[in-house]
Target: 2-amino-4-hydroxy-6-hydroxymethyldihydropteridine diphosphokinase
Amino acid sequence: MSESPNPNVIDTDTLTGDMHPIRRAVLSIGSNLGDRVFNLQGAVDALGDTPEVWLTGVSPVYETAPVDAPEGSEDFLNIVVTIDTTLSAPTLLDRALAIEAAYGRERGGELNAPRTLDVDLIVVGDRRADDDHLVLPHPRAGERAFVLAPWHDLESDAQIPGVGPVAELLEKVGRDGITRRDDIELEVS
Ligand SMILES: Nc1ncnc2c1ncn2[C@@H]1O[C@H](COP(=O)(O)OP(=O)(O)OP(=O)(O)O)[C@@H](O)[C@H]1O
Ligand SMILES: Nc1nc2c(c(=O)[nH]1)N=C(CO)CN2
Model:
């Protein structure tokens, strides 16, 4: 995992350019179609290769029963990834959508239809957004064990701004339908 730059150190060479603050962001990644491990690994690699993004954590992999998905949907593999980034939230969303597309994500079918790859922004620093394209924090994250459990493994004291501590939300939601798959290891370069 690469180290993100120390935000307190000012590089005088860059002072004349556009300076963007470094923000911590949390992403939820899932797959329930095709080679699920390959798809998750591809998403981790693509995020790590993104300029202005530094991977700071990749959670254990969870096998999770599909939530609010069409009858007959297969189980998901889910992870949570933490990053530091100087990208804006809309640019990060564009990147997430491009990574989904690169791994064969098709849209336009039923709500929550099986997908090769889903990359959702859960929080981006303390950024709030509520428009057609971007809602932050993610409005359903606090109800989803498949987000809360892997996130809690990475950061036991994390909070969803305006919603509550991840540990308490996970306690409330419970761990039914999710199993940690320690036999699956993703590589982080
Ligand atoms: N925080 C967010 N993260 C990702 N996409 C978001 C977010 N807020 C709004 N969107 C919008 O949601 C649109 C549909 O995304 P998608 O089809 O992946 O939803 P989903 O992940 O299946 O469902 P859910 O939002 O319940 O997780 C995206 O094109 C994006 O513009
Ligand atoms: N288990 C599980 N269920 C879901 C998931 C997901 O990633 N995992 N994503 C959804 C829409 O984003 C809807 N339902």
The chain has one domain: 21-180. Residues 21-180 form a domain with the Alpha-Beta Plaits fold (CATH 3.30.70.560). The first helix runs from residue 36 to 48. The two ends are 6 Å apart (CA to CA).
